[in-house]
Design goal:
- The protein is an alpha/beta fold.
- The protein has 2 domains: 166 residues, no CATH class; 189 residues, no CATH class.
- The chain is built from 10 helices and 15 strands.
- Strands 8-9-12-13-7-14-6-15 form an 8-stranded mixed sheet. A 3-stranded antiparallel sheet has the order 3-5-4. It has a two-stranded parallel ribbon with strand order 1-2.
- The longest helix is centred in the N-terminal third of the chain and has 21 residues.
- 46% of the residues are buried.
Length: 397
């Protein structure tokens, strides 16, 4: 057992509810029909789920730019098994590891993914994957995992080897949390000391994709206080009241706003200011990077100018995926020194070709890297980094 935990009857009922859809599919089709599934790599997976499947394919990349490719691999595996008459097995090694949202485009995330893919190639497995897990989930089986798919049931040893390697590198995943003023200060130093060009500041803690409201004001206030003015733009704050006021007033008008801070006190107080309405938009966009071609409806949008800074306001919750919200309102991000947005990592797919440097702001918010602030009731086993002395060992199932 890996990082063994003892679940109450109530907790096991939650686990069984999680398993029920997969189990029902298996009951419906029988044990001889191959069943595979494609997952977001932030899923929290366990062996009981894998036992009902012949293939588990989480996307490899974060941002998730390879979901279609992974789906194609899953379908190919079904076709091969039906044609040749064999069934593959899935082995899951769970780790007591709560990873912060870590991109695979660079740094430790990229290095671990490269190791996973090389080990898959050299071992001859059908597939070897890394579930990052979702640390904001309070469930018994939360945490990172390594999953192996093999034809002859020999995947467990390879999965264990990769799990030990991931565990040994856990300290490299520790996030550096910068509040708003600190993130702005770092961004200014980067911009002034290098020829990096555009500096992107991503406010990871107010990422709607992780459950935050998107109306936080901590980073925007820090940028205004720093006097970044026309060198910076912000895209976007979710505030339907302010967006509606801008649409009612029309372009060319000056309106008094109380921007953001409408959901709670955690994400910041409203910003009270006079704003010039520069441009308006209906908020209907087409994604151009991650999920390219998919529609995104952000509701009525407005481009406001506050203290010389361009600030985009939207009406519906979403993180910023690419440059489209800026472009549709007449903003070319390449003409700015600083661009701020709310997203943890998905924005990288749309900004990787224009960002010279990226600085992450971890202001107070629901998607903070400081996961120790969240109370846990169902996660009843020691987990790193909440418990720095947690032990990881692998034994028999």
């Amino acid at each position: 057992m890996v990082a063994c935990c003892v679940c109450t009857v109530q907790e096991w009922s939650k686990v069984l509810r999680t398993l029920k859809p997969i189990w029902l599919v298996r009951v419906l089709v029988g044990k001889n029909v191959p069943v595979v599934a494609v997952f977001d790599l932030h899923g929290n997976v366990m062996q009981a789920m894998a036992d009902q499947l012949n293939g588990i394919f989480p996307c490899h990349q974060y941002p998730h730019i390879d979901l279609h490719e992974r789906a194609e691999e899953a379908i190919d595996l079904v076709i091969i098994q039906l044609r040749e008459g064999w069934r593959s097995q899935c082995e899951v090694i769970q780790l007591p590891l709560l990873l912060p949202t870590s991109t695979t485009f660079e740094g430790i995330g990229a290095r671990v993914l490269a190791e996973v893919l090389e080990l898959e190639r050299s071992s001859g497995l059908i597939d070897l994957s890394w579930f990052h897990g979702f640390p904001y989930t309070d469930i018994a089986h939360v945490g990172a995992a390594i999953v192996a798919i093999s034809k002859d049931g020999n995947g467990r040893g390879v999965a264990e080897r990769m799990a030990h390697s991931l565990w040994a590198q856990r300290e490299s995943f520790r996030a550096i949390s910068l509040d708003g003023p600190a993130a702005v200060a770092v961004a200014k130093r980067v911009a002034e000391s290098t020829l990096s060009g555009l500096v992107v500041i991503n406010e990871t803690s107010d990422n709607c994709g992780g459950g935050a409201p998107g109306d936080g004001t901590h980073l925007l206030r820090a940028m205004l206080d720093a006097g970044l003015g026309s060198e910076a733009c912000f895209g976007f704050v979710v505030d339907p009241v302010t967006a509606a006021a801008a649409h009612q007033a029309g372009t060319g008008k000056i309106i008094d706003v109380e921007l953001g801070g409408r959901t709670d006190d955690l994400h910041g107080e409203p910003i009270r200011a006079s704003a010039y309405v520069k441009a308006l938009h209906d908020g209907r966009l087409i994604l151009q990077a991650m999920m390219k071609g998919s529609p995104l409806h952000l509701g009525p949008m407005a481009r406001l100018m506050i203290d010389g800074m361009d600030v985009i306001v939207a009406s519906r919750r979403s993180q910023t995926f690419d440059t489209e919200p800026f472009l549709e309102l007449g903003l070319d991000v390449r003409r700015y020194r600083y661009v701020a947005l709310k997203s943890s990592n998905h924005f990288r797919a749309g900004f990787k070709d224009v960002a010279g440097a990226i600085v992450t702001a971890d202001t107070p918010g629901l998607v903070t890297h400081n996961i120790a602030v969240f109370p846990r009731r169902a996660t009843n086993q020691p987990m790193w980094p909440l418990d720095p002395h947690v032990h990881f060992s692998i034994g028999a199932n």
